[in-house]
Amino acid sequence: MENPAQDKAFPVSWDMFHRDSRALAWRLSSVGEWKAIVCITRGGLVPAGIVARELGIRTIETVCIASYHDYDTQGRLDVIKPVDPKVVDLDDGEGSGVLVIDDLVDTGKTMKVVREMLPKAHFATVYAKPVGVPMVDTFVTEVSQDTWIYFPWDMGWQFQPPLAKETAG
Ligand SMILES: O=P(O)(O)OC[C@H]1O[C@H](OP(=O)(O)OP(=O)(O)O)[C@H](O)[C@@H]1O
Ligand SMILES: Nc1nc2[nH]cnc2c(=O)[nH]1
Ligand SMILES: [Mg+2]
Known about the structure:
Its EC number is 2.4.2.22. 5-phospho-alpha-D-ribose 1-diphosphate binds at residues 42-43, 102-110. Mg(2+) binds at residue 103. The chain has helices at 14-29, 45-55, 85-88, 109-117, 163-167, and strands spanning 8-11, 36-41, 60-66, 78-81, 98-105, 122-128, 138-142, 147-150. By secondary structure, it is an alpha/beta fold. Helix 1 crosses helix 2. Bound molecules: 1-O-pyrophosphono-5-O-phosphono-alpha-D-ribofuranose, guanine and magnesium ion. Magnesium ion binds at residues 40, 43, 102.
């Protein structure tokens, strides 16, 4: 099965996300140099800002894709906005000189669509699951396929009942 039930939780705090995105920038800094970042919205917006700051990249473009319409179930993949041709054509019309950033790769379907637009770009994510790993050139942390990653922008503070109350009765 390509994407089994994702019943393990990997919660990520803002601090963790900042540290892991900086680690991504650190890895990328020894891989190459890029003229522009293309971030895959919306999840890619946050790491793209951090990596752009670390690597001194000021041209930042978006490709707007949505597929997980129903929380954790992937549906039809919608390209809401393609990459600006000015960015595709920076070097050779195939994405050389472009760094594509997303928060994570899961099945790899989102990355595959963007790879078709920018075949020579470098693809990077902060987190990766095994099925998606072949689609990404650089990432920081791998989690198992049956794990759901909870990002800080999707979370909120909530009262936690004390253990004693949970186990009573
Ligand atoms: O490797 P895949 O199985 O294709 O999944 C990975 C994509 O899923 C999430 O985006 P989502 O479509 O939920 O949109 P969002 O970034 O706006 O949250 C995530 O941000 C990746 O872009
Ligand atoms: N937040 C979040 N979005 C996803 N999209 C695909 N996989 C995931 C995941 O594990 N977490
Ligand atoms: Mg996304």
